[in-house]
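[step 3/7] fold_predict: job queued, chain A
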Amino acid sequence: MIFNLAEPKRETAAVLSYTGAMTSAEYTAEGKKYTLYTITGSGTLVVEGKAKNVDIWSCGGGSSGSSTIGGAGAYCAEASALTLSGDYVIAVGAANGNSSISNKGVAILSANGVKKSRNGGTGGGRGTGDGIAKYPFSDSTTFKCHCAGGGGGLSVSHVNMGSPTSTSMGSGGSNGGNGSSSGMSGGNYGGGNGGSASAGPSQDPVAYNGSSAKFYGSGGGGGGYAHDLWDGEASGTAGAGYQGVVYIRVPA
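[step 4/7] structure written:
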């Protein structure tokens, strides 16, 4: 009798390379070890071999603010347990832009709604956020919350001989929640703050700029606005939204 004593052939680990801006790091989540690839610039991902059980999370760029209105946080999208092999074109959205991954012209995931797309915190108390936390892979231990809304700018009006009236357009939403009806702060982890403003007796109207967002997918702050019946008006410049990001994690 003849026995085949040769060892079974072992599958070679996949090798990933990327033409754009990317960093990689090892980390552990729920007892499992992963290699996390953080992609912050558009390019082509080349997978030599087969990478199995891959999870992807991405968000687009946050909206820029406008006059008194804070920009909304971006949409996000996720896909899990994928097998990747070959070339993948990845677009990372700038402010107001979409992030996506495609293979041979077919979209695998897009931050504007192909798979499980969710909108981030609403800007400056305007509209409604979806209330779904924007933590990549639902991991609030490793990641900060993404896609915060920008704060709304302050609007001040002086149209009679009395004191000026002011209206705050609200704070930005974070964690996928609604913006509040008061205050001008941006949502947690990067939403831009709204600009202030002033007008009234014996002063020219003054309006300040909203600040730009500071974290992935977050919205910019709205500019302040001041109106004086006798001295005209002033408008602050709104802050820009922050770019998107793509995370790819592969079991180590």
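[step 5/7] annotate
The longest strand covers residues 43-59.
The CA atoms of residues 135 and 145 lie 5 Å apart.
exit 0
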